[in-house]
Amino acid sequence: MDKLLQLVHVSDLHFGDHLLNPSWMLTARMAGGLATHDLDAALALTDSVDIQRLSGLDTRVVATGDLTTWGSTNAFGTALTFLRNRSAAGPAKYAGLDDPDSAVVPGNHDIWNVMQRYAAGGLGLPTSLRGDFDLFFTPPVPSPHSGTYFPYGVRIPCGPVAVYLYGLDSNRLELAPYPLLQTLGLSIIASGYVPPAQLDELENLCLPAELDEPRIRLAAIHHPLAYKSINSIPWWYVKKLINLDEVLGRLQDMGFAAALVGHEHSGFAQKANAAYRKRTLEVLSAGTSTQLVYLDSAQRALLARGYADLAPDEQPAWLAAMSETNEYRTYVFEADPGVDFAGDHIPPEALAAEVLEFKYSPDDYEFKRVDPIEGPYRVPLGDYVIK
Ligand SMILES: [Fe+2]
Ligand SMILES: [Fe+2]
Questions:
Q1: Whole-structure pTM over 0.90, yes or no?
Q2: How far is the CA of 171 from the centre of ligand 2 (A)?
């Protein structure tokens, strides 16, 4: 199998966090650079991606939302530099993934939902608005149909096929049915919604905008297209994509092979299927790569604190916890050189993506490849090649 391309999938960087700090009003405005994060994590992630680049494979970065915690200008600036450039972080040290073409979609922390905006505005707090995200991360190809930036598509050459990666914005809760109930009631805090119009536009994009060439479609979306939370958080309460079935079904109807997701702060790979569809969709979740986050199994909750919030005696325990959660994924695309990709039938295994999971250990300052959740995970893509 010829190796063709590798996509590095990071998520939930959460720059400018201070999530539980009462003084966040100030810090959200002030935090800049890598001040809210453990520097070793940012450096080691940088090194690890650089090492992967030594393979000579074209290496692209995808970030699936929650680039920031409060959507402050400083935090967006840090995220932009970290993903698309690099910044000095000490003598002969640089932090940053350095992919100027990295694909980025927003998370619920980058664009706060409308209720939170009103509440924050009423209290005189900073709020994260849609325009702030667009200012820093204008997607490369604005949608010609809506005048908004989502959905958008980028084409990435991948040997005999092209990967078309489409970004969706799942932070449109204000457009969900019964917005008041959604807001006041069950599932508001971190839920998501993709309006049908965005899916209609995606369908439009998939048809005329794609070149006439063998291709596979991938989606990038912050909220997981999965029915069950990996974190034992009551799924119906805070983390839900309200119209999961609709989004999943439409992507399957459009022949998408996989969706890259975030939001859970834990990596997983699973197959998802809306009712009556022939093929499943691979849902590939990256964890969180640089934020101090841990899963408290006693409380069954995912807790997060800004690194700058820690007292010195708290740091060792938090760093140890971080080694369990810090992770990212790499998808190495491979093709069988003996297969004619222009032919009528392409066997599923003729084009495959190997899913690699990496975790960071702060003790010995090194990234380790770990076995995916249920052993080596390969996604056969041949059946998804569209001609
Ligand atoms: Fe997050
Ligand atoms: Fe999120």
A1: no
A2: 10
